[in-house]
Amino acid sequence: MSQELPTLAPLAAFVDVGSEHMHVSVAGNQPEVFGTVTSQLHALRDWLLEQGVHSVAMEATGVYWLPLYGVLESAGLEVRMVNGRQTRNLPGRKTDMTDSQWGATLHMHGLLHAGFVPPADIRRLQDYLRLRADHVAAAATCVQLMQKAFERYCQVVR
Q1: Cα dihedral 60, 64, 65, 71 in deg (nearest 10)
Q2: Is the pTM of this model over 0.85?
Q3: Domain coordinates of the chain in residue numbers?
Q4: Which residues, at least 6 apart from 46, have a Cβ–Cβ distance to it below 8 Å?
Q5: What angle, 0 to 180 degrees and rounded to 10, lies between the N-to-C axes of helices 38-51 and 65-74?
Q6: pLDDT in tens, 3-39
Q7: pLDDT in tens, 134-145
Q8: Is residue 87's pLDDT more than 70?
Q9: E-strand spans in 3-87?
Q10: Which of 27, 28, 73, 96 could hold 105 in an S-S bridge, CB 3.0 to 4.6 Å?
Q11: 148-to-37, 66, 155 alpha-carbon distances in Å
């Protein structure tokens, strides 16, 4: 006696985020492919809204997800970042197309759990703090190089 999983969000979408392409599937259907430039991210957002999508799950490594997350979040979509371990498909059948379909199917049935993503104002503050830390480190490097040059100059003058 097999029991089917209930469909919690029939129009749930999943985005497999990459450095050059975004593979998007709605309800496990054939994925659409979008680029990663701003105009393509807006086209992806518009396409999702046309499809009637309210909830989007994303799986990504690195920082490639950040621009898309902001675009989708500002459009009022519920966006979930999920750990790639939740979406692993069968071994030997891994492509971005099948990953997005499998992820959408899991998301439809409520099987993907969102990771923590801070609110937009906190993310912006984090960016400023990281930039400040980078500038402080760069300034320290400049001071060390000037000190090194000064020490060499002082040795030559003696």
Answers
A1: -160
A2: no
A3: 13-108, 118-158
A4: none
A5: 50
A6: 777 778 788 999 988 888 999 999 888 889 999 899 9
A7: 999 999 999 999
A8: no
A9: 13-17, 22-26, 32-34, 55-59, 78-81
A10: 28
A11: 43, 40, 11
